[in-house]
């Protein structure tokens, strides 16, 4: 259901532990990887934010570890290659938002480091997000086995509902 639905789908693992039920959205988290897939997810999130009169949190997670490490000649982290990666990612987030379609809404921009699924779930919990919106590429077969699905991992870890927007 998370990988190949014909339309955006919402996955709810458990009722909202803060209220016992869903009562709308105050904080919507959108994971951004600077792709057309992310642009589609952002468009859906902006529509939801306008509908619920809420704010968006745009999050980009910088994967620290470069893979495969045995190709690196003493460089194992992206921050070794690009020391100001946070500043550049933050500027790109703002540009990405400004060039996206959809209604204008309140937005905050965030950059963190780590493993993408874990950091998204952690951010949602620490910042009282009510919903996560993210794209899924709809990979199947060998592609899915080799690459995995960030969206599926986030769904498993997330303390809040996740809307998966298929873009394949």
Key structural traits:
alpha/beta, 6-stranded mixed sheet, 6 strands, 168 residues, 6 helices, single chain
What secondary-structure arrangement, pairings included, does this model have?
Blueprint: E1 9-11, E2 27-31, H1 36-52, E3 55-62, H2 78-81, H3 85-98, E4 107-113, H4 116-126, E5 131-136, H5 141-147, H6 150-157, E6 162-166
Parallel strand pairs: 2-3, 2-5, 3-4, 5-6
Antiparallel strand pairs: 1-6
Helix pairs in contact: 4-6
**Over all CA atoms, what is the radius of gyration?**
16 Å
- Helix/strand order, N-terminal first: EEHEHHEHEHHE
* Structural category: alpha/beta
Largest sheet: 6 strands, mixed
The level of helicity is 25-40%
What general outline do the C-alpha atoms trace? globular
Strand content: 15-25%
How would you write the strand order of the largest sheet? 1-6-5-2-3-4
Number of beta-strand segments: 6
Low-pLDDT segments, ≥5 res = 139-147
**Can you count the helices?**
6
How far is the N terminus from the C terminus?
14 Å
Could you state the oligomeric state of the chains shown?
single chain
Mean pLDDT: 79
Tell me about this structure:
By secondary structure, this protein is of the alpha/beta class. The chain is built from six helices and six strands; from the N terminus they run E-E-H-E-H-H-E-H-E-H-H-E. The protein has helices spanning 36-52, 78-81, 85-98, 116-126, 141-147, 150-157; strands at 9-11, 27-31, 55-62, 107-113, 131-136, 162-166. Strands 1-6-5-2-3-4 form a six-stranded mixed β-sheet, sandwiched between helices. Helix 4 runs parallel beside helix 6 (150-157). The radius of gyration is 16 Å and the shape is globular. The model is unreliable at 139-147 (pLDDT under 50).
């Amino acid at each position: 259901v998370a990988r190949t639905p014909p339309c955006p789908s919402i996955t709810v693992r458990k009722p909202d532990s803060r209220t016992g039920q869903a009562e709308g959205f105050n904080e919507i988290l959108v994971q951004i990887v600077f792709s057309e897939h992310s642009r589609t997810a952002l468009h859906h999130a902006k529509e939801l934010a306008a509908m619920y009169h809420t704010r968006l949190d745009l999050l980009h997670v910088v994967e620290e570890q470069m893979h495969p490490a045995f190709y690196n000649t003493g460089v194992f982290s992206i921050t070794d290659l690009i020391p100001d990666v946070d500043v550049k990612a933050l500027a790109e987030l703002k540009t990405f938002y400004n060039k996206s379609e959809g209604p204008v809404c309140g937005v905050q921009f965030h950059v963190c480091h780590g493993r993408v699924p874990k950091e998204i779930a952690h951010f949602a919990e620490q910042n009282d997000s009510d919903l996560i919106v993210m794209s899924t590429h709809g990979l199947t077969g060998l592609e899915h086995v080799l690459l995995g699905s960030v969206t599926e991992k986030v769904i498993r870890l997330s303390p809040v509902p996740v809307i998966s927007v298929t873009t394949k």
